[in-house]
Structure formats: C-alpha cells, structure tokens
Design brief:
heterodimer, A: alpha/beta, 4-stranded mixed beta sheet, 12% strand, globular, B: alpha+beta, 5-stranded antiparallel beta sheet, 3-stranded mixed beta sheet
Chain lengths: 465, 471
C-alpha cells in the first residue's frame, strides 16, 4: 500500500525534485517508473492568471517560501502575489473577510481561525480540490481542520513543541549516555546533572507563555489529547483533578530551585530567547545549564548564536561535542517524556502549524492549494532548513540533518496533535500566563489550589461557561 | 482651536470691508478639507470608541455599563490605574526639578553647550531604542547588566565570595555525599569522629568540573596516616564514567584544592585550621589526645552577589500579606521605579532646555537687585528665580503630566515582567493596546479603558489650552 502510494507520488513529481526522489523507497519507485523522470509530466500544467496569497512569513522565511512558490509559478504560469503579514495574520484575515476582500488563498497559524471562517462559509471545502492527497496527512492533522465533516484546510508547515533541547557536552559532564524517555527518568537525570555541578534547566519564563507551553506538554502527557481538547474548550474545570495532576507533576521540576538556572528568582527573569542562549551560548561564553524546554523554533536561535553548532551528538568533523561554542559544539533534542504510567500519551504532540485555505475557487487558486499540499512543495523548504512538514510523503532524507529528521518524523507520526491551549483562550490568555508565572514563583500545593481557583474564575468569565 | 482661528479671521476680514456672506462662504470652503480630515480621523473614532465601550468583547452585543464595572473591579485594571497614579505623582515633579537643576547648573559651568548637548541627546533616540538599552542595563545577570555589575563589584569587595560559591537554590548540605554531614550555619563536617593518627574521607558533589580546573585541581589522592596527626581528603565524589558510584575515590575524580577546613574538639571549639592542596589533601599535625571532627567552613561556599532583578515585579512596599485588590492598589513594583529612572534619562534634557530658555529670558535686573540687597545664592534662587520661572515650570510640569498619563512606549518595551494586562508594570495605555489589538482581544474593555484615559487627560489638556488661548 505504502509503496503504491509512493509510486503515485513519484508520478506527480516534477523533474526538479528527481534528485531528492532518488533516495530510499522513493528512489526505487522512480526506477520502476523511469518515464516519470524523462518526461517529467507536470501534474498541474499551464494555467496562467494570478492568485493572491497571504501568510505570516516575512524576511528570511518569506524568501524560503518564495523559493517554494517559484517552481509552481514556472510550471503553471500563474503569477502568485504573495503578501507576508507577520504575527498579525489572524487579525489581517478577519479584517479582510469583514471588509469583503480576502485573498484567494491564505495560510493561517491557527485552526480556530479556519474553523470560524468555515462556519461563516467564507472558505471552500478542499476534498474535491485535493483528491487523494487528503490522505497524505495523518488523521490527527485533518481532524483539526474539519468542520461539519468537510475538510477545509491543508497543512503546509508544522512546528513541534514536544521537544527538550539539550547540550550533549553538558550531558557528557554528568556521564549521561542516553536521553530520558520517562518523566521520572528526566528528574533522575536532572539530579545526576546537579551532582556533577551542572545546572539541569534554563527554564524559559518570559511573560509566561513558555511556562504555559511547558505546562501544556505536561498536561497532554498526563491527561491525554482528549482531555486536553476538552480543557482548551473549557469543558473540563480548571479545578479538576487532571489539572491538579499536571501542576503537581510539573512542581516536581520547578519546585527544585537548584535545578533551575539562577534558582526561582533567576528563572523568573529568564526571557526568551535569552534562556536558549544560556544552554547554547555565543562564542566567548560557556553554557550555564544543560537543557532548555521549548519548541523546535529554538534551532534558529542556536545556529544564530554560532554557525558552528552541529545537529546531533557528534561535533563538526566527527569530533567530540565541546561545551565551548568556539570548539565543536552540538545541539540535540529528545521528545518531551510522559510519566512512566502514561506512556500511551508519548506520541501525542503539542505544536503549531500553518494551514492553507481557499477563499475563491479559481483554477489558479485551486492549483496553488494542490501544490501546497503536495510533498514537492514541502521538500523545497525542508532542504532549506527551519521547516518541518506534516505531510507523510515528504521524505525524511530531504531534511538537512538527523535532528530535523527526528523532529519531522515525530510530527508525521503523531497519534494526537494539539495546538497551544493558551492561544485558544481568547481574552484571558495574558492572565493565564500570569498564573503560570505565579506557579513558578510558588509551586506549593496550597498555591496550586489557589491558582486553579483563579484560573477557573478567569476562564469562566472569558469563555462564558 | 479651529473655532478660534475662524473668529480671528472674521475680525480681520471684517476690517478689510468684505461683504459678510461672501467671506463666510469663502472661509467655509477653506475649512472643508481640514474639517473632513478632523472628522474622519479624530471625531469619528472618538465617537466609535465611546460606543464600543458599551459593547461586548467582539462588539456584537450591547452590554451597558458592564465594561466600566469590570474596569474598577478587576485587579488587572486596578494595577494599571495604580501605575498611572504612580507615574503622575513621581515623574512630572522629579523631571521638572532635574530639568531646573540642570538648567541652572549649565549657566554656571564651562563647556555648558557640550553639557547641554549630552543631557539633551537621549531625546533624539526613539524611546523603543532607549528602552532596549535600559533592558540590558537592568539585566539580572551581572555579566550583562551594568547596574548589577556595579552592585556586585562593591558587594564582592565587602563580602568576598568563597572558592566554591553555591549556585542559586543550592545548599551546602546538598553537596555532602560520603563521610560528610551538614553542620550549623551552612558548614559541613565529618559524620564520624576521628583520633590522632586517623584519616578522614570527605566526598562532595554539585561542583562543576570547570571550577576545579580553574583552581588547578589534580586527581584525588587519599593521604597516608601520619603519627600524631589527622590527615584527610576532600574530593569531588562524582565519576563521569560511573555516576552511580558514591563513596569510592575513583581515578577520574579530582581533589578540592584551596578549601578552608578546621579541626574541632568534641565541645565544638576550633583547634586548628588549614587549607587543602591541589590533590584535596590536608593534615593537622600534633593534635593530641581526644576525639575530633573536621569541619569544612561555610565561607568556602559563600555565593557571589546574584543580582537584583531591577525589572522584577517585587514590591517595595510590604504588601505580601494583603488581599489581591489591596495588593494591586498598594504595591510599588521595582520595575516601575526602574522605568521611571530610564524615562528620566530620556526626558531630563527636554525639560532642561525649556527651563534654560525660560532662564535666559528672565529679567536680570531683578536678580542683580537681589544680589545688591545682600541675598545669598540660595535665597535668590528660592525667592526670585523660581517665582519668576513659575509659568515655564508649570508648562513643563503639565506637559509631563499629560505625557505620563498616556505612558506607553517605555512600558511596552522595557522589561519582561511586562506590560501585559495584569503585568506589574502595565498602564492604562498599554492595557488599551493589548486588549484592543494584542493577545487577548476585548474591544469593549479596551474602549472603556480608552474613554477613562481620555477623561483623565481632559483636565490637564484644558489647563494647557486655557494657558495657550490666554496668551
């Protein structure tokens, strides 16, 4: 079945991508159907016209995205008028729809925006456009953008927040040879690091959102994806036992000030991305902690600090990873571990993603949607780095290093995928962040109880139930 | 303003003898473009804001006064009100005084122009840029934050840190592994007593290998027993090749050099003190009869000054035990003071220049008369200069009151505790922004806040308008 799918995919392949296709199973498929290379039958053909496209990407990301678009434009003759809206994407789309002039195609970073637009019939169902490509995505992904049984979005870019990033050289100082696979093992390893005189965590707190991300990971791993979605919609009380369990579990970590760089006081002053720099510093300074807990977007900060950072557990040129960023420093991650009793939640992942939706079903716009949902589009950005696709057909070999491959593999095989819960809370999101900081300040059982009470009141006031 | 201008024009034109109706049409025609602009970008949004303030978060349903009620009942907005009050009480007065002092000083020094230029310079930077600079100045980490670097230098001078400073959250007791127990006041001591001729092994963990490398540590070696003496070893009881082995002295474990250790009698009195060598060894010779304990002094672990979190929410007033509302109203978070300091740096030059202009325009005869009459410098300043400058000082003061009532840019850009609603440094204007356009959108509440802000600015605005039209 999967081989047959691969053959299908290869026949859709444009010759530009044949190099990438010549590896692994897909390579085999291509040799089986040699005609697909020599004739390079484009799936879309010449269409012409133009299509307006909005997404959040600006600057470097915009350049990468335009690289994704250029083969489409060359092949179809469609002029794509791209507009990068930055972090205001959701607001911009809402305003454009209200003003009656939305773009033809848009990528939004939040499925709730998409579902709200589907409810208003502002966007088109995609099943007729995508055809069999729909099944290139896991059901966890498609379910997020399905309204009334109809699919309204196609995922293009995904971010993984189910990650803990560690400096392999610091782990080596403590003699740690493997990464933890359970929450309990994570705490044991933290204790070992501390005994070796290495501070285990540089806890990102900033204005509270990184703590919310962390707490959400713990909640997802202890309560599961179904409870997570219920809590996000406030169908579970914030004073409920699953919430208490998540706070209590996280308190095992943040309640140990010596595990946190600078103690509790230092943790509360640790903004993003400075918290990443404390583990993966610029040349001239040394790491001050071993791990930082945040999504895969920390990679751009790490390699920005020094291009010398190598992905994985072996330094540049096969040398040993060094703590000094001036030597051969490395970075790696391990999946956020579930408690030993909740291993069933291991593949439930918290993340983020950009989903494409169709406002106006012109031929050019439909072709663009089809292209964005194809593995070819994903592969181009995968090669450029800083990108992960939830599309199962984007081969892992197209990612530039083993760390990105592992990251993308996790995303593709997620059994459950949830978005950041705080982003779904509307007007009380900043209060939620404050509550999370309050928790870091004092993770005692009595304060947890009082925080839960506050959060329940805030959620009820903001969400109306 | 527009009305005033028209009246003057009418009066002027009337003297020229134009027919009244013709002139009226003409002036109306000239007014239209400006009036349309004014209506579109000032009047209409103002009315819309007032209207939205009576609607719910998404402006879809009228909710009466409920937004205004929640303004005065939620702790988040009370914090914003409190911060605005704090700004208005502290900033305009202090910045006016500083401006006055600088203006008077600059009249009496050489290089006055250079001095004025330097003081005035910050006003030409964008407040955002200045805020980013001050975010660095106020950083917690003394390696980055200048403020804490200064405090640390002075602090280390008076209280030098130990060779093995504890990290934050670490206790001396947590370092003890084998043969060591916690002693009072953060010291460590041998778990068993020892007699002359005995040897003690004291294992410690939780110290970074880099610390030992810097101190020149060598591989730990257990000293041989010595007649009449107590010998011992303090070593890093953590093996990278075998992290689970505690108590054994393994080949990849180093000694603790430069550690201050004391020999105690069973009654607790100190017999002798010494320091360990590069291998972590020490020896107390000729100790005499009796049983002893070896103590590792607490001073070895004294942490360095860890920095004051200048941009932190910690309150300068003791409000920790009060209720949420009282805390919101009465706390004075340190970040507010840090922000006011940064904002003073930005605006002091501006007030100085305005006051200096006022000073230059002063009637010198009055000052000379005061001198002739035998008034001291201070008396002249207090009784002559300040009263004569009063109109200028009032303008500066009122302008600054308006300036800080709508304080926004520095609040949003300085610090991480942040300006989010409920953040300890948030103000009315920053709440309006975040509720209206930021993360948690609630158009109704944001509009109600904006209306409140408008009402608060009106008195100061009227005062200034009256002064201007009075001239």
């Amino acid at each position: 079945m999967s081989q047959a799918r691969a053959v299908l995919s290869a026949s859709r392949r444009h010759k530009l991508f044949s190099i990438a296709a010549l590896t692994g199973l897909l390579g085999l498929a291509v040799t089986m159907v040699p005609a697909s290379i020599s004739t390079a039958t484009p799936a879309l053909g010449h269409i012409g016209g133009s299509v307006s496209l909005w997404a959040e990407w600006t600057s470097t990301e915009q350049q990468d995205f335009e690289a994704v678009l250029s083969p489409f434009q060359a092949e179809t003759g469609v002029n794509v008028i791209y507009s990068g809206k930055g972090s205001n994407m959701d607001t911009a789309i809402d305003a454009a729809v209200a003003g009656g002039a939305p773009p033809q195609v848009a990528l939004v970073p939040s499925p709730s925006t998409l579902l709200a637009l589907a409810q208003k019939h502002a966007i088109q169902p995609l099943a007729p456009v995508l055809g069999s490509e729909v099944s290139d995505y896991g059901s966890a992904w498609n379910n997020l953008v399905t309204y009334n049984g109809k699919l309204y979005g196609v995922w293009f870019k995904a971010a993984n927040k189910n990650t803990i990033w560690y400096n392999p050289a610091e782990f080596a100082l403590a003699g740690l040879k493997t990464t933890p696979t359970t929450w309990q093992q994570l705490l044991t390893d933290a204790a070992t690091l501390k005994r070796a005189g290495v501070t285990p965590f540089s806890l990102c707190t900033d204005i509270g959102w990184p703590v919310a991300d962390l707490w959400q990971n713990v909640y997802l791993k202890t309560a599961g994806a179904a409870s997570y979605d219920a809590l996000a919609a406030h169908n579970i009380s914030w004073m409920g036992p699953t919430v208490t369990t998540a706070f209590d579990t996280l308190a095992e970590l943040v309640g140990q000030p010596s595990y946190l760089l600078g103690g509790t006081k230092g943790a509360l002053a640790n903004s993003y991305p400075t918290c990443v720099d404390k583990v993966f510093p610029k040349p001239g300074t040394m790491p001050q902690a071993a791990m930082v807990i945040e999504g895969d977007f920390v990679v751009s900060e790490i390699v920005g600090n020094s291009p010398g950072y190598t992905a994985g557990t072996t330094g540049a040129g096969g040398k040993k990873c060094t703590a000094s960023p001036a030597g051969t420093p490395c970075y790696d991650f391990f999946p956020f571990p579930a408690p030993a009793a909740d291993q069933k939640n291991t593949s439930a992942i918290q993340g983020a993603g950009d989903v494409a939706m169709l406002f106006k079903p012109t031929a050019a716009a439909k072709a663009l949607i089809k292209y964005l949902g194809s593995p070819e589009a994903g592969e181009i950005w995968a090669h450029l780095g800083g990108f992960a696709s939830p599309n199962k057909l984007v081969p892992l070999s197209s990612y530039p290093d083993p760390v990105t491959q592992a990251d993308a593999s996790e995303l593709q095989h997620a059994t459950g995928f949830v978005f950041s819960l705080d982003d779904l809370q509307g007007s009380w999101e900043p209060s939620l962040w404050q509550d999370m900081l309050n928790f870091v300040k004092n993770p005692s059982a009595s304060n947890i109880a009082s925080i839960q009470k506050t959060m329940q009141a805030q959620a009820t006031a903001a969400m109306g139930h | 303003m527009a009305v005033v201008a028209v009246d003057r024009q009418q009066g002027f034109a009337g003297r020229r003898g134009l027919r009244h109706g013709q002139h009226h049409l003409q002036s109306l025609a000239f007014l239209v473009p400006g009036a349309v602009l004014l209506l579109a970008i000032v009047v209409w949004p103002t009315i819309a804001t007032v209207r939205y303030s009576f609607y719910n978060g998404t402006a879809t349903k009228a909710v009466g006064l409920s937004n205004y009620k929640s303004l005065f009942s939620t702790a988040d907005t009370l914090i914003a009100f409190r911060n605005n009050v704090l700004w208005v009480l502290v900033f305009p007065f202090v910045v006016t005084v500083i401006g006055l002092v600088f203006a008077v000083l600059s009249e009496r020094i050489r290089w006055a122009t250079a001095f004025k230029t330097v003081i005035f310079l910050p006003i030409v930077f964008s407040v955002t840029a200045s805020s980013l600079v001050f975010t660095q100045i106020f950083q917690l980490d003394p390696h980055i934050g200048v403020m804490n670097a200064i405090v640390q230098t002075v602090d280390d001078w008076f209280n030098p840190p130990g060779a093995y400073p504890l990290s934050a959250g670490q206790t001396a007791a947590s370092l003890a592994t084998s043969g060591v127990v916690a002693a009072p006041h953060g010291a460590l001591e041998t778990s068993a007593t020892v007699k002359a001729g005995g040897t003690v092994k004291m294992g410690l963990t939780g110290v970074n290998p880099d610390t030992l490398t810097v101190l020149g540590a060598r591989q730990a070696r257990l000293p041989a027993p010595f007649a009449g003496a107590i010998t011992g070893l303090v070593w890093r009881d953590f093996s990278v090749s075998n992290p689970s082995n505690v108590s054994g002295v393994l080949p990849d474990e180093d000694g603790f050099p430069n550690l201050h250790v004391s020999l105690l009698r069973s009654d607790g009195s100190t017999v002798a003190s010494t320091t360990t060598d590069a291998f972590g060894r020490f020896r107390f010779s000729n100790v005499g009869p009796g049983t002893f304990r070896v103590q590792i002094q607490a001073s070895n672990f004294k942490p360095s000054f860890s920095g004051t979190f200048w941009l932190g929410p910690q309150s300068l007033t003791p409000t920790g035990n009060l209720g949420q509302t009282a805390q919101a109203l009465l706390s004075v978070p340190l970040i507010d003071i840090s922000m006011i300091l940064a904002y003073l740096w930005i605006w002091a030059g501006f007030t100085m220049v305005i006051v200096a202009a006022g000073l230059a325009a002063l009637d010198r005869e009055a000052l000379e008369a005061a001198h002739v009459d035998g008034a001291t410098e201070w008396q002249t300043f207090r009784r002559v200069t300040i009263p004569m400058l009063a109109p200028v000082l009032t303008v500066v003061f009122v302008t600054m009151v308006i300036n800080v009532l709508k304080i926004f840019d520095i609040v949003v850009n300085l610090g991480i505790d942040s300006s989010q609603p409920g953040g300890q440094s948030s103000t009315l204007a920053s709440d309006v922004y975040y509720l209206g356009f930021g993360g948690g959108v609630h158009t109704g509440l944001a509009s109600a806040l904006a209306v409140m802000l408008f009402v608060l600015v009106i008195p100061a605005m009227l005062f200034n308008l009256k002064r201007i039209s009075g001239k």
